[in-house]
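Feature request disguised as a bug: please show the residue count (177) next to Gnk2-homologous domain-containing protein in the output. Example input:
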Amino acid sequence: MAARIQLSGCHVQYEADGYTGILSLDDELNHKKCGENQAVVSSGYFEQMRSKAFEVLETEAAEDEGKNGFYSMNNHEGFHAMAQCEAGLNGCDCAKCIVEGVDVVEKECVNSIYGQIFLGLCYLSYEFNPHEFHGDGGQNNGRNGIGKIAAIAIGGVGLLFFVFTLFRCLKKKDDDI
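Example output, currently without the count:
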């Protein structure tokens, strides 16, 4: 019998003596979960943001900044990512495992807005929240600029109408005197 519990910043694995079960203790893929495909930003921009988020995790692990194998990156253009390595795994091996997890994401979770990758020595998780995304990702194609110009034009016409009406009222008072 074997079990594995992965929480944010905590990892517990149990395997009975002599059990040759489902959990590997190397860079082998134990389990993956890919979410729904994104349709909020262009595919190329989405992949670029995801890659930058994963780069942060890889760099932190390689530099082994005393985080005990837990690395996270919050809100890079709507991306949240975390990686966790087995206790006692050195920074280089942890970074290598994270790179393996990223490879799985890039091959099997191509445009998924969230994913979880369980390898034998590390865990990688990410999610994209479109409500926290601040860029346009090449999707707006100038629509926001046109909207702003239209709003300014309508406001200008309204202001001219107000000034013209005020001028007529003042002129009418002058004629009455």
